[in-house]
Design a protein that fits this description.
Helices cover 38% and strands 13% of the residues. With 201 residues, the protein is an alpha/beta fold. It has two domains: 48 residues, Helicase, Ruva Protein, domain 3 (Orthogonal Bundle), CATH 1.10.8.420; 140 residues, 3-Layer(aba) Sandwich (Dna Topoisomerase Vi A Subunit, Chain: A, domain 2), CATH 3.40.1360. The strands form two sheets. Strands 4-3-5-6-7 form a five-stranded mixed β-sheet. The longest helix has 14 residues. The protein binds zinc ion (ZN). The site of zinc ion has 8 residues, from loops.
């Protein structure tokens, strides 16, 4: 027999599917929710429900609630000739928070990791060359984490993009600790790494 009424157990099971949330934490979260009023629960579940309408931007693979382009790709004030390649959505967000980058992004959806089966065909590279040509991109910034997979991906992309005439391929300046994650870099460090970026060689 279940320890909790089914309605409660179901939500505990749902929370338990989230990364970093074990069973005990899931229980604590659900009991917190149970102590809130009905308005809180409706608002919370409404926000959850809205996420089911999410799309991927056809250009950069960012989350978008519009049909085709995300708000960044759709912004005429952004500089289409500079393209910043990042691993995941949260990397895009931390770079946006530095408020120093006015170009566009391209989310790879991962980095190369052959041991885990992440080979180049698993990355969002299919429309990358087309975007670079269409937007007359002059610089591609490889803003990847300074760890083993990030380095391997930078080397791969440098080779992959090298044949395109007229583009500079850059990477973040040293300053981010080796093995660290862009996601956790403070804004000043990241802004510096971005403004002091250097060519990949
Ligand atoms: Zn986009």
């Amino acid at each position: 027999m279940a320890r909790f009424p089914e309605q409660i157990q179901n939500l505990i099971d749902d929370f338990n599917t989230l990364p970093g949330i074990g069973r005990k934490t899931a229980e604590r979260l659900v009991f917190f929710v149970l102590k809130q009023n009905a308005a809180y629960i409706h608002k919370f579940s409404g926000h959850f429900e809205q996420l089911s309408a999410v799309n991927k931007c056809q250009e950069c693979h960012n989350f978008s609630f519009a049909q085709t382009l995300c708000s960044i790709c759709d912004d005429p004030k952004r500089d289409k000739t500079i393209l910043c390649l990042v691993e995941e959505h949260h990397d895009l967000n931390v770079i946006e928070e530095t408020d120093t980058f006015r170009g566009l992004y391209h989310i790879l959806g991962g980095v190369l990791n052959p041991l885990e089966g992440i080979t180049p065909d698993k990355l969002n590279l299919q429309n990358l060359i087309d975007r670079i040509k269409k937007n007359k991109v002059t610089e591609v910034i490889l803003a990847l984490n300074p760890d083993m997979q990030g380095e391997a991906t930078i080397m791969y992309l440098n080779k992959f993009l090298q044949p395109i005439p007229g583009i500079k391929i850059t990477r973040l300046a040293r300053g981010l600790p080796m093995g660290s994650d862009i996601e956790y870099a403070d804004e000043v460090t990241l802004a510096n790494a971005l403004s002091n970026r250097r060519e990949v060689n």
